[in-house]
Each structure stands twice: as C-alpha cells, then as structure tokens.
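Researcher: We are triaging several targets before committing to wet-lab work. For this one, the compound of interest is pyridoxal-5'-phosphate. I'm pasting the protein sequence and the ligand SMILES. What I need is the predicted three-dimensional arrangement of the protein with the ligand bound, expressed as structure tokens, so it can go straight into our comparison scripts without reformatting.
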Amino acid sequence: MKRYNDLNPPPRTIMTPGPVEVDPRVLRAMSMPILGQFDPAFTALMNETMEMLRELFQTENRWSYPVDGTSRSGLEAALLGLIEPGDKVLVPIYGRFGHLLVEIAERCGAQVVTLETEWGGVFDPEQVISAIKRECPALVAIVHGETSTGQLQPLKEIGRACRELGVLLVVDAVATIGGVPVDTDAWMLDAVVGGTQKCLSVPSGMAPLTYNERAEAKLLRRKRVERGLRTEHVPSRFRPIQSNYLDLSQLQDYWSPERLNHHTEATSMLYALREGLRIALDEGLEARFARHKQNGEALAAGLEAMGLTLFGSRTSKLPVVACIEIPEGVDGEAVRFMLLTRFGIEIASSFGPLKGRIWRIGTMGYSCSEKNVLHVLGALEAALIHQGGRVQAGDAVQAALVVFDRRGAELC
Ligand SMILES: *Cc1c(COP(=O)(O)O)cnc(C)c1O
C-alpha cells in the first residue's frame, strides 16, 4: 500500500510578483544529469553563465555570478562584504524591501541612516543626493523595483552622484532584472543583485549578482581564506567578512580559474539559470522589456476599465506589478481565494500598512503573456461580481485587447 501520493502539483496561472511560472525548457534543463563541480564540462557552463550574466546586467564587470540561496542571500552577500562594522550606510526606503535592506545592514554592524517617503511613490533623485551629501555614508543601498508598492526608482542620477562622492552604491534589482532595463555600467552601480524567480522565470534558489572593481577592492582587503585551504597567509588589518557561506571574496575565487573549493555548487539550479538566461538573451533584452511594458499597460488599462483604482504614482509605476485598491465592501482575501481555487489563478496581497488594502498582480517572465493578462482580467471581473463588488462588466478584457491590437498595428 502506498503511504504517500505521487507528487502532482496543480497547474496554476501565477500572476504574483514572484515566484512565477517557469518555461518548460527551464524545467527540462533541471532534469539533466549531475556533473561534479570541478568537471571541465561543468566549469565551462559556469563560465558561460558568467558571460550571459554580464549581458543581462549590461556590464563589463568581471564578477558577475550567482550566489546559491534565494535573492535575499545575494543582498546579504553584497552587504556583508561591502559593509565593515561601524560603516555609515544610507538606505532610502519607499516600501517593504527598503526595510529589508536596513535590517540586513544593521546585522552587518552598520550605522544605518534612513530616508523615508510615503509608500506608493519614489524619491526625487535630488532628495537622495542631498541626503548623501549631508550624511557622507560609506555606502548607499536602494531598491530599484519595489514589489510591495509597485514602484520603480530612477537610479541614474543617484549612481553618478555616488561615483563623484566616492560612495559605494548597492542596488536590489531582484524584481526588475530581465523585465525592466537595469543598466549597471551606464548608471554607475557598484553592486547589483538580481532574482531568478521574477522576470527571469527560473525557480527561486539562486541570486545572480555583479560588482565592479571599486566593490572588489573593499572585499579583497577583508579577505581571509579558510585555514584548511591556505597555502600562504597574509594577515589583514581589516575585519574579515562575518559570513563564511556568503563571503564574496572566497566565492569569486571559486568562480575564477583558481576554482578555490567553497560550497558544492547547486548543479541543477545552475542548469536552470543558464537555460533561463539563454532564453532571455535569445528573445533579446529590448524585446523582452517591450513585452513586459505592453503586458503591464494592457493589464492596467483593463483594471481601470473595470472601474478599479490603481494604487500609487503612475509616473513611477513599476511596469511588472500592478497594485490595485481593494474596493470598499469587498473581502480581498475571499476574491483571492476564489481566483485560486475556482480559476487556478494566483494574485498577491501586500505587506505591512498595505495588507488588506491592495492586491498586487505581477506580469513577469513566462507569466507575462497576453493569454495570462486576458485570463486574469476576465476571472477577476467574474470573482468580483460573485463577491458582490460593483464593476463595469464586460469592459476590462476589451480594453486590454485594444492595447494588444495597438501593438499588432505598430508591428505592421
Ligand atoms: C522578491 C524580492 C526580494 C526577496 O527575494 P527572495 O528570493 O524571496 O529572497 C527582495 N527584493 C525585492 C525587491 C523583491 O521583489
């Protein structure tokens, strides 16, 4: 007698800001045979992945590789390596993930100063720049696409100011990489952390990142190789990086021709990332950004035609997340539950002050398609009516179709 059933997850249309649906080609890549982590067949795949990541991050940085662990591990690795205990760190906060950067920086021993703006908007770059001039931090950490509020922070001016003032700039581009332009070199970003389970449409479990020579210099002066691996030892007067697992100064040696032994690389995840990157670069970054923009616009047009109100500033809207105010008298969780159980569609709620106030619908990666946008609009309309909400019935899908048709006309 069988004690447990076969693994048989229900098929879902995932319209959240991550994790999202995964291209079947990526799932197939994950079932390929395991290779040893020093096998030349595997290290060749590692090198290719680094090359692809440089393209994705739009950078010439030598160091562009994934950290094993979810996106948060990449953020922690970057901050642990670049913040020495006692360093002053400035974090501008405009949503939940800004608070996460503060939380991590504090645990790195930073003296954290924050700048806050109301959730639903972003900073005028000048606000951040004058705070940098006033506070003189060693490092600024900021979120590019804030999924909790659906907002996109412009980074170019902040990047230039940090470079001129000799401040390191670390960016959380977890939600934007592969869906919205992230121009690492042109914007002068010193370290950028991406995510796999959002616009790249790879399962969660790796955090691709990149950093330049300015960042590397700070890591290297804190470098300490494990005693069991050392051939020589040059003691450093700087504090070693507090984490062993997330020590970028050692990890980069594993990703260099030296192949210093660190943890065992997550073989199947690397296959997945490589395949996800290959698919993204094959589509072309510009085409991919245009697809995300168009689906985001069609979704927003449909939601508004239904009579719903989008939350947050429209000028700084993150193209890959729509935040919707839950209408008065509607039970937001009952609508979400109905969408999931009756229509097989998942949308998200939000966090902290926005919990119970907004829904969030993501249009990311493989989930970001005309089919999914039309399905979610039709289903949301039906679920809202069923739950007693008042909507402009019949208009949402039509409004989205108009946006998709316009694109078709542009291509002719
Ligand atoms: C999803 C997300 C994260 C956290 O990613 P995990 O993979 O869950 O660790 C961090 N920052 C932003 C902006 C995100 O959207």
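Researcher: Any quick observations?
Model: The chain has a mean pLDDT of 96.
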